[in-house]
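Readers of this paper often ask what the protein records in our data store actually look like. This encoding replaces a full spatial description with a residue-level series of whole-number codes. For reference, a complete record is included directly beneath this paragraph.
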Amino acid sequence: MKTYLLLPLLLLWVLLHAGAAELPVLNPDPSEVAVGGAPLVPAVSTEQPAGKLVPRDRTRVAVLGYHNFSETKPVTEMCMRSSEFRQQMETIRRSGCTVISMREFLEWLLGSRELPARCVLITLDDGWKSVYTDAYPILKEYGYPFHLFLYTSYLSGRGDSMTPAQIREMMEHGATVGSHSVTHDYPKVWKAYEAQGPEAYARHIDAEIGGSFTKLGELFGSIDTYCFPGGYITPPMLERLPGYGYRAAFTVVPGKVGIGENPFQIHRYMVFGNDPSIFRHAMDFRPTASVPTTGREPGTLPSSTPLPPFSVSPKPQETVGCDIPAITASMGELSGVDFSSVRMAVSGFGRVPAKLDANTRTVQWTPPMRVYMPHLSVHISWNDSDGTAHKAEWSFAVDPAAAPKQP
């Protein structure tokens, strides 16, 4: 028989004898098969996370928090260049991390779902119109799910706010919704109500946190997550959150999330437009990314830890409020220091971009947000001019009820 006749018969035999075997599904890189700017396949499925699943205790999640976006307005903590946001989304894609939805996150944290080892959860606060005009097209292009923390008085569509219709459109393409209160009160407002007594304070919590739960449910369907405006948290808030129907609440304290996380004080990296180091820390999943501490509580140090050989602020074992103006080490008291070698790390933040004042020989770093961790430890390392290595460590306490420390 001629060879050209054998080929069709051979192909037919292969098809008939393939049985029930399934052909592998090819998943092309969405960045390489885009059509009209949209990926042919999403970078992640909201039904089944991409990547190899691991036991729950081996997963760590970086929760990212964003606010406003613009290519023309001044860059601030709250306002990021839209182009930089795109670059960060591309960095996530290239990193191999899995972007997960809020539902997947909660099923993992509160239930039995398994996820890949390194995951990212994207959240966006307040309800800025630029989320719809700038961030949403990028997130849609990459196929990333995302979660909107909205405060209900900012849903009018006036000024820089979004409309409920815009939010519903995004919900059809990967967005979910959580509460950010009714009016986004800052700590001074909460403290004013708290000063009126427990009953007045409870009524205000009901109005702000409970009222937002009800209103957002009417607009967008049931919700179960809350985000503390400004990161301000008090025990009465934590006590009442579950009663409204919330299953989880998010802070502004950076750190990777593991299965031992308190579901009502979940760590989150607030990615500021003027500080790219925060995103870098969030995407660093190395075990050494956070400062290890050996105390019984996170952020504490053993009682045997020597005091630093120079003046520091806050002082060792001092108690300060959540508004920490700066963490400083006055190293001018030492001689022979190679100041180009000085490094500062802070528990919960990892290595921080501390600045050196050449005149006073003071190393200083200001936390970019209010801090609500009960303790912080500070770690300074440096070399002498002859190369000899040194380190100094101290810890201090943070009490939300303490008066703010003055600069």
Remarks:
- Residues 224 and 246 are 4 Å apart (CA to CA).
